[in-house]
């Protein structure tokens, strides 16, 4: 079957994991669109079901296996044959090994093989065989491929791929490869074009955006990139992820001085114990991290700080955990993603024995969640009785008459749809919300003035 014979096939993509996976899914969707495929809403309607996977935590493997196997019970699509494809990090890690337990999977493609997904699916339709492609290096970067963006107002913009950090718990460098920065002007030109197309907000993506350009120029140039992207006309700039060891003073200055860079920073700490941070190979200490937070807040006082924290890293003692707890209380995060350590085969941490009982780890996790919820609630109180601009993304999942948007600090903001407007008129617009309630995970109020 040639690519042209995919014309008219229906497809559905299910994405697990990080923002880079979301961007990869947009590229896969764009490739299928270019072949004449049509996106549908449910697996039962789809001739092609693609799972874009993450392997950072064990739960992602379990979820993939469950959803793949559930496709076996679906009725045959109108075309008579359904192709199941698995891409992303699990595909890159396991390759052909995925077929051992998932015998209904037809196509496996790794993180460096997205450009070939159309050919692989066409071959699977043609001969009914399994087709696997998991290259070690990317011949055709995903950024050169067509895309199907999920929204007209926001865009994921990868500035680099891969990671050189080799944190001892993390599988990412093994499935995404080494750091590779995109050319400077290519990124700026892309954001300029997006702005002219009406995109209002971009998120610059990289496993460690702070090291952007080190492979191209010998030293990071992320601060310069922020300034140049800020001159493109784009209204809102976010970025992720940001490694503490590489957050330079000039980057903090650019964040403070470029109006389009939003006052929000995700700075993963992972642990508050210097001993555990050393075992994690994070290459900073508790003290240096807290000093960095102080410098950021000195330049951007109202910044919303978010983080990732792992509980139960092998060998973590009660004293180590107490240091994590006290760090979270000191920093007072606006948001934190908290995880129980998940052993990833092939990483150094997976070789460390840990006798800590599961119930002890769960108790520590719950204590941390309580602190995070408390500080998030306190942070949101700062915007009570203020007017907060929010970029509208849709409606609340619980109430279709309530708008849902994001503030400049990445807070969820709710407000009733104002009289005289429909939701279609407001998605992608910025509205001012007079906040009359501040909860742990959202702000709510009423729209004041006209959308813009």
Automatic annotation (TrEMBL):
Biological function: Catalyzes the methylthiolation of N6-(dimethylallyl)adenosine (i(6)A), leading to the formation of 2-methylthio-N6-(dimethylallyl)adenosine (ms(2)i(6)A) at position 37 in tRNAs that read codons beginning with uridine.
Entry-linked PANTHER family: CDK5 REGULATORY SUBUNIT-ASSOCIATED PROTEIN 1 (PTHR43020), MITOCHONDRIAL TRNA METHYLTHIOTRANSFERASE CDK5RAP1 (PTHR43020:SF2)
Top-level taxonomy: Bacteria, Bacillati, Actinomycetota, Coriobacteriia, Coriobacteriales
Cofactor note: Binds 2 [4Fe-4S] clusters. One cluster is coordinated with 3 cysteines and an exchangeable S-adenosyl-L-methionine.
Cofactor(s) listed: [4Fe-4S] cluster
Subcellular location: Cytoplasm
MTTase N-terminal domain residues: 9-126
Protein name: tRNA-2-methylthio-N(6)-dimethylallyladenosine synthase
GO cellular component: cytosol
InterPro entries (UniProt xref): Elp3/MiaA/NifB-like_rSAM (IPR006638), Methylthiotransferase (IPR005839), Methylthiotransferase_CS (IPR020612), Methylthiotransferase_N (IPR013848), Methylthiotransferase_N_sf (IPR038135), MiaB_methiolase (IPR006463), rSAM (IPR007197), rSAM_horseshoe (IPR023404)
Binding site for [4Fe-4S] cluster 1: 18, 54, 89
Listed Pfam families: Radical_SAM (PF04055), UPF0004 (PF00919)
Principal location listed in the UniProt entry: cytoplasm
UniProt binding sites for [4Fe-4S] cluster 2: 163, 167, 170
Highest taxon above the source species: Bacteria
């Amino acid at each position: 079957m040639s690519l042209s014979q995919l014309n008219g096939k229906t497809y559905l993509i299910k994405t697990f994991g990080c923002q880079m996976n979301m961007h990869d899914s947009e590229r896969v969707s764009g490739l299928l669109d270019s072949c004449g495929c049509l996106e549908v809403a449910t697996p039962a309607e789809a001739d092609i079901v693609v799972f874009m996977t993450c392997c950072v935590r064990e739960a992602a493997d379990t979820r993939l296996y469950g959803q793949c196997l559930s496709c076996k019970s679906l009725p045959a699509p109108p075309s008579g044959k359904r192709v199941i494809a698995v891409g992303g990090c699990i595909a890159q890690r396991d390759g052909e090994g995925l077929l051992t337990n998932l015998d209904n999977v037809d196509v496996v493609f790794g993180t460096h093989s997205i450009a070939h997904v159309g050919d692989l699916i066409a071959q699977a339709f043609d001969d009914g065989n399994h087709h696997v492609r998991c290259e070690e290096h990317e011949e055709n970067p995903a950024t050169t491929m067509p895309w199907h963006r999920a929204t007209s107002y926001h865009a994921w913009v990868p500035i680099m791929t891969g990671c050189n950090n080799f944190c001892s718990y993390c599988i990412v460098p093994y499935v995404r490869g080494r750091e590779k920065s995109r050319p400077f002007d290519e990124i700026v030109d892309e954001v300029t074009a997006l702005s002219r197309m009406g995109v209002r907000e971009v998120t610059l993506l990289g496993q460690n955006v702070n090291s952007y350009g080190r492979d191209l120029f010998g030293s990071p140039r992320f601060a310069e990139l922020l300034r140049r992207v800020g001159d493109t006309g784009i209204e809102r700039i976010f970025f992720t992820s940001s490694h503490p060891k590489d957050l330079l003073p000039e980057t903090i200055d650019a964040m403070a001085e470029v109006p389009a860079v939003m006052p929000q920073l995700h700075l993963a700490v992972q642990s508050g114990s210097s001993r555990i941070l050393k075992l994690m190979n994070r290459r900073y200490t508790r003290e240096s991290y807290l000093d960095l937070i102080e410098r950021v807040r000195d330049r951007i006082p109202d910044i919303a700080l978010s983080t990732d924290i792992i509980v139960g890293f092998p060998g973590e003692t009660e004293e180590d955990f107490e240091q994590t707890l006290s760090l979270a209380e000191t920093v007072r995060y606006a948001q934190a993603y908290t995880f129980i350590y998940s052993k990833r085969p092939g990483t150094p941490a997976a070789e460390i024995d840990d006798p800590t009982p599961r119930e002890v780890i769960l108790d520590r996790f719950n204590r941390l969640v309580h602190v995070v919820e408390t500080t998030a609630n306190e942070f949101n109180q700062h915007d009570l009785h203020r007017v907060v601009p929010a970029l509208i993304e849709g409606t609340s999942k619980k109430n279709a008459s309530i708008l849902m948007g994001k503030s400049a600090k990445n807070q969820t903001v709710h407000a009733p749809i104002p009289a005289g407007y429909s939701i279609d008129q407001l998605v992608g617009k910025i509205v001012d919300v007079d906040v009359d309630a501040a909860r742990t995970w959202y702000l709510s109020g009423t729209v004041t003035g006209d959308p813009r």
